[in-house]
Design goal:
48 residues, alpha+beta, two-stranded antiparallel sheet, 2 helices, 29% strand, binds zinc ion
Length: 48
């Protein structure tokens, strides 16, 4: 299971339709809104 970095929900990466690759890492999201929010401001959600 992957964790949606925006809302913290667990997401099954094999069935998730919402994936986005940022700096070589693929993130999975529970819904389109979370993906859009991440794309708008990825730095806010990526742990450094
Ligand atoms: Zn979410």
């Amino acid at each position: 299971m992957a964790v949606d970095p925006v809302c913290g929900m667990k997401v099954d990466e094999r069935s998730s339709k919402f994936a986005y690759t940022y700096q070589g890492v693929t993130y999975y999201f529970c819904r389109q809104q979370c993906l859009d929010q991440f794309r708008r401001d990825p730095v806010k959600y990526v742990k450094r």
